[in-house]
Write a structure and sequence with these properties.
Order of helices and strands: HHEEHEHHHEHHHHHEEHHHEEEEHHEEEE
Strand content: 5-15%
Number of strands: 14
Structural class: alpha+beta
Bound molecules: protoporphyrin IX containing FE
Shape: globular
């Protein structure tokens, strides 16, 4: 059966992707379907920054909504730079200084940093933490099982990724809660529940950065079996000699890691559970043959959720994307959510199909040098969390509407009630 393509009563000229009010419309999927069909590359004013965050409003951006155009831009890092920022708005220089992580950089600096941090994310390193992921997932279910109900996001989905990153980096447990609060402040920009002022935002980022600095210094002096130590002692060679990570680079990377690895994985797990509740046939299919279905199920959950809605690039020269001329210096925004529903790339894209093959989604990015560093880790976390949930709480389901994060960047769910009756050992 083919799921219908969503629609909107708005005309294409009325669609304004920079308007955060429009962003909250129930027919958002319809807006993107219309753009893909009628104006796949379109120009928009930038969102007006919330009054309490006095960022300047920029000159506007090109929105890419088709899969092929997103692929073209992501895989051409010479023409489309990640610097100065992968967010639509330009970050004020006083923040960019410490937020200047590799995600906003281009070759050759990005290449050098990526070579170093890759050492912490090799298949061997990830396999090593598999046990820790499994243990965490078990502990989470042990903790909630007797209660019969809880907030799925806070107590299940969010608890796992943060703990794993903290374990990998070698962070003591008592610090986790504070780190969790700080990442919420940074990613909740635009949602009044989380951020109230630019000072608060800067304060949260600075605190995370400082935490990373202290961690780096400590591991230089006291090596341990964690990826902070691996990264601080790794060396890479290029024509200019040997490089090691500085403590400040580790600080920025740490900030990136807790932000990039946390909310994204939590969002994927939350949307996954929501859709499994809505689609009992898919849930049964997975539960009945967990190992066999898992590889495709995990990819479909990431495609379906598309936790990161967009990343921006900046054109370095005049060029053409999807038939549209783009001038040097203009902002180009890749809407992964739309690419992942593009009828030209996916068969029946609005169908949640845990056995979907092929499924070359762009949830972890569309290829190129910045492809998600944590993709394999995230895949394992999603798989092991659902393995534990479907096995131990076989009738767990979402029992209320999700409370969505007000953001055009993260497709987040803030809270969502769930309940179960049966607990298996
Ligand atoms: C379902 C979960 C996740 C999603 C959907 C996701 C998505 C993304 C996306 C879209 C990008 C940009 C790719 C590009 O520009 O080509 C990215 C980059 C990145 N991700 Fe993830 N991510 C997830 C989990 C994680 C985890 C668990 C970690 C680490 C623990 C992580 C670390 C990073 C880092 C460090 C980058 C920047 C890489 C670079 O600039 O070279 N991510 N991620």
């Amino acid at each position: 059966m083919t799921e219908p393509i969503p629609t909107t009563p708005l005309a294409v000229d009325e669609i304004r992707l920079g308007d955060l009010e429009q962003w909250l419309r129930p027919d958002r999927e319809g807006l993107f379907a219309k753009l893909r069909a009628e104006r796949p590359v379109s120009f928009h004013d930038e969102p007006v920054p919330p009054p309490e965050i006095s960022f300047p409003q920029g000159p506007g951006f090109w929105a890419l909504t088709r899969y092929a155009d997103v692929m073209q831009v992501s895989r051409d890092p010479d023409t489309f730079h990640s610097a100065p920022s992968i967010n639509i708005g330009d970050i004020p220089p006083e923040i960019a200084e410490w937020l200047g992580s590799m995600i906003n950089m281009d070759a050759p600096k990005h290449t050098k940093l990526r070579l170093i941090v890759n050492r912490g994310f090799t298949p061997r390193q990830i396999a090593k933490i598999e046990e820790s992921v499994r243990r965490q997932a078990t502990e989470i279910v042990d903790r909630i099982a007797p209660t019969g109900e809880c907030d799925f996001v806070a107590e299940i989905a969010a608890a796992l990724p943060l703990q794993i990153i903290c374990d990998m980096m070698g962070i003591p447990r008592e610090d986790n809660k504070r780190l969790f609060e700080l990442t919420n402040v940074i990613l909740g920009v635009g949602d009044p529940e989380y951020v109230s002022s630019l000072e608060e935002l800067m304060g949260a980022g600075m605190e995370l950065f400082q935490y990373g600095l202290a961690l780096a210094d400590d591991r230089l002096r006291n090596p341990r079996d964690d990826i902070t130590t691996t990264m601080m002692h790794a060396e890479v060679e290029d024509e200019n000699g040997t490089h090691k990570l500085t403590a400040s680079e580790l600080g920025s990377f740490f900030l990136l890691l807790v932000v990039a690895g946390n909310e994204t994985t939590r969002t994927a797990i939350s949307h996954g559970m929501l859709e499994l509740t809505r689609r009992p046939d898919q849930r049964k299919l997975w539960a009945d043959d967990f190992e066999q279905v898992s590889p495709t199920a995990v990819e479909e959950i990431v495609r379906w959720a598309t936790p990161v809605i967009h990343f921006r690039r900046t054109a370095t020269r005049d060029t053409i994307v999807g038939g549209q001329e783009i001038k040097a210096g203009e902002k180009v925004v890749m809407f992964y959510n739309s690419a992942n529903r593009d009828e030209r790339a996916f068969d029946d894209p609005y169908r949640f199909d845990l056995t979907r093959t092929p499924n070359e989604h762009v949830g972890f990015g569309a290829g190129g040098p910045h492809f998600c560093l944590g993709a394999n880790l995230a895949r394992r976390e999603i798989k092991l969390m659902f393995e534990e949930l479907l096995r131990r709480l076989p009738d767990i389901e979402i029992t209320g509407e999700p409370d969505m994060l007000q953001s055009n960047f993260i497709h987040g769910i803030k809270r969502m009630p769930c309940a179960w009756h049966t607990v298996a050992s």
